[in-house]
Amino acid sequence: MGLALSRNLASRFFFPFLFSKKIPADIFPKQLETMMCLVSRTGRDLQRYNKGCRQVVGCIPYRYRKTCDDEGTLDEQIEVLVINAQNGRGMQFPKGGWEVDESMEQAALRETFEEAGVVGKVERTLGKWSYKSKRQPIVHEGYMFPLLVKQQLEDWPEKNIRKRRWMTVAEAKDACPHAWMKEALDVLVSRQTQDRKILRKREEAA
Q: What stretches pass through the bilayer (predicted)?
């Protein structure tokens, strides 16, 4: 069935399952995964614009990796997932156009699935940035979200044109040429550091 549908039509049919509140976040049926891997939205007929600026959304996929220092103290370090740019210049976070038939969070999750092959929990936005397109004389309005990765898929729509890699924050900032994405990463790290401090204080007080 998936092969008989156009990419855009199939995408609109299967993606609502990702955002349904009736399905637990940790359930991702193998059959659904297989069908979704066949589709990816194309074209810009539904693209959103704000005063001439193309609206773009994306995610910084992240996870925690347990580390141990020289004294044997256990800690957790943030790792982020980056993908190669299509022009081959550096690495970046998954992003793409926000379309009129989806919420901003849905678009961010969809683009992350299509380009990086991961799904998870989209958290509150990191902010909004304006940047110039390198290929067209247009300004983009970019929104970035953190995405705590729950599952990394073996197959995804852009598997044949994208390479993905987990990196430390420092490695990602060195590999990414986009200043606005680096700023979004700084916001994520600052937020997570503050949230973890608050959590530790609560645990100590309990």
A: none
Grouped pLDDT means (10 residues each) for the chain, 206 residues: 38 47 42 48 78 94 82 79 87 95 95 97 95 80 96 95 96 95 96 85 79
Please provide the DSSP assignment of 25-73 as one string.
TT---HHHHHHHTT-----STTB-EETTEEEEEEEEEEEEEEEE-TT--
Domain that residue 142 falls in: 44-205
CB 161 within 8 A of CB 117: no
Q: Structural domain tally of the chain?
A: 1
Q: What letter does residue 165 receive in the DSSP assignment?
A: E
Angle among Cα 28, 30, 33 to the nearest 5 degrees reads 75
Answer yes or no: is 163 within a domain.
Answer: yes
